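Title: Prediction job returns without error message
Component: structure pipeline
Severity: low
Priority: P3
Assignee: unassigned

Description:
Job completed but the reporter wants confirmation the result is attached to the right record. Sequence as submitted:
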Amino acid sequence: MRFHKYHALGNDYIVLDPRDFPSWNPAPTAEQIRVVCHRNFGVGSDGILWGPLPSQKSEFGLRIFNPDGSEAEKSGNGLRIFSRFLWDQKLVTKPVFTVETPGGHVQVVIKENGQLLTIAMGSVSFDSAQIPVALTGAPREVLNEKIQILDREFSFCAATIGNPHCVIPLSSVTPEIAHKYGPHLETHPLFPRKTNVQFLQVIDRANIRIEIWERGAGYTLASGSSSSASAAVAHRLGLVDRNVTVHMPGGTIGIEIGDGFSIMMTGTVNKVAEGKMHPELFAVKV
């Protein structure tokens, strides 16, 4: 029951190779995921990366699970971590390769012996039908719509890069805002698949700051897909240029916005630990 733990700017994931878990076919259960990710009763993480898996279109397949047991379509930090794992385990010998997730295919470029990675994340869409967002009226780009949460009305934008995002532009952002309003935005009826939430502050034409409430995980120090969506929204609103540094509590990610809102994401990965989980870990239900 071997595990490999990494973090990307404080957003930590556990990589589990299915070949080490033959009885967990085809994937860990929600209960197993919750135990492994639990900070007190398990190894502790912001999610599980289950792979490598077979893929018909890419060199590797990957499934991503949140600590509450739900599955995510895509994760920028998770993809960087999984790619670093493949490099460390010598499952790839060339620094450029592809990975498939339920949220789409990406191309990975390994740099600095796996400590820095660039990923072509795909293209951002603001279309309400694709995200999805259950707005009244005809499908449209979700830009500067209104939403009432608790005691406050927000103007929000929504986007998808294979997973849904709700971006709230504000003059300043704090962890307290994310903790107070994030859970209610994540589960709001406007978002039938729930949503990741970013509170966005534009610093200047090349820098933004975000606080993140992640779907299925809660308050998060950093997120690659959140960085991608937030930078794309800021650019769509005309507030930033095409090269953006995204500042988060855990550190920074570089985003390059190409034609059609294609996204190149560059960020670091650090290895934390590897070891074996004891069967007694699963004696507790969480």
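Comment from assignee: result matches the submitted record. The chain has a mean pLDDT of 97.
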